[in-house]
Amino acid sequence: MRTPPVRRYLGLVTTTVLVTLSVAIALSLTQAWAEQPSSYSPVVIKESLDTTIARMSAEKPAIMQRQMDLLKERYDLADRAADSVTMSRGKAVQAGIRVRLPAGMTWEKLAAMKPEEIREKGLFPKGFLPLPHPNHSEGGMVFPQHHIDEIKAQEDRDLTRFDMDYDLPAHLLPEYPPAIFLTTRPDLGDVSQGKVVTIMNYYELFNGILNPKQLEGLRLLVTPFPQQQFNQTEDRRSARPHRGVTCFDCHVNGHTNATTHLVGDIRPQEFRHGLDTPPLRGVNVQRLFGSQRGLKTIEDFTEFEQRAAYFDGDPVIATKKGVNVLDRGSQVHFMAEFQALLDFPPAPKLDVFGRLDPDKATESELRGEAVFFGKSRCAECHPAPYYTDNFMHNMRTERFFKPQMINGRMASADGPIKTFPLRGLKDSPPYLHDRRLLTIEDTVEFFSLVTGVKLTEQEKKDLVAFLRCL
Fold first, then answer.
1. What domains does the chain contain, in order, with CATH numbers?
2. Which of 10, 164, 202, 432 is 20 to 30 A removed from 126 (C-alpha atoms)?
3. Which DSSP string corresponds to 224-279?
């Protein structure tokens, strides 16, 4: 028996409605699923590189203006050098407190308040809050312009990003090029010859000074390998296909140029800490590595950097972009052996125990040493002679401020932070793990407040004088 036309029509309508509804539900679920947080970076990119460059280049001025407005609100960025205090190769050390206080507030008034009161009244200095990456939602390695210029001149390898620039002024950064001191040849002093060590000159600079293993390790440290933002793929952040970056692009001359990045071990993106590149000087006396101290040797650190840290801690995307799998028994060992030769700069006022020689130090420096090992309690985390305990410590800075979004960075807590060696401190501004403290004076004010030790003005000045001796 044939189905009446009306019934057939209604059946078709019902089927069409059901199909349409099913498609709508599927699309909705797909969109909802796509919006779910993921630990992984997207592998398949849906936008052409030309479109990405055009879009992000257009967004760049507003992004950089937002970051510069934040810096000017937080800090005094002026070029104001300390009298007769320089880094190892002569660059002036910046002086003075640069963090701006809330209107009507003084450091003495702030120190007299309890953390809960500072938090409730919103009086924690903004320069003490976590410092976002220049574009926190995007992240990735961003290099100071003077390093970009030098590498382009030597290698024709362009580290310029089309989506953002570096943010802090050059006078607040480490000297460039940094000196290089070797534990094996202290008699040579600075062996850099005033040059940035690259693949183009490493051999002529170090042949005859290093053994063959160390020389090969250095070659690998200045060889470009693919990295998240600098590679061959359509989701890079360099206009041209790129050979990659080198270990010494951030740790220039085995020290640092204050290149910033985001730590690879936290998700989601807004909770990732900004990163200040630490010096490689003195890694031979350190026993834990990585932002969470999860790596136990310099060999572990070297291998992890190539396998995952270069790619925001995502080995899946590393496979796509060209992961450099190093041989542990030779390449990793050679690279680590060279890194272990990098020494702290000379500290002529310190004795063999890392303490001040009374015959060489000033009265202010000696008073500062007494504060360091006494009232300020600095030495509990930074014991002599290298001024690190190789542990992590949580200062619980969240006692002082309410959670807040700052330029894409969710400032809620710092968590445990590793104890960096203080030897050679004046050579490696800015300070703290995310670059938020621009001078040693800022650093003293920060720790005086968050530890509650309530240093006097004279004690702070003396402590700064001592720290410049290390």
1. 81-132+349-467 (1.10.760.10), 142-339 (no CATH)
2. 164
3. -B--SSSSSSTT-SSSS----B-HHHHSGGGS----EEE-SS--SGGGSPEEEPPP
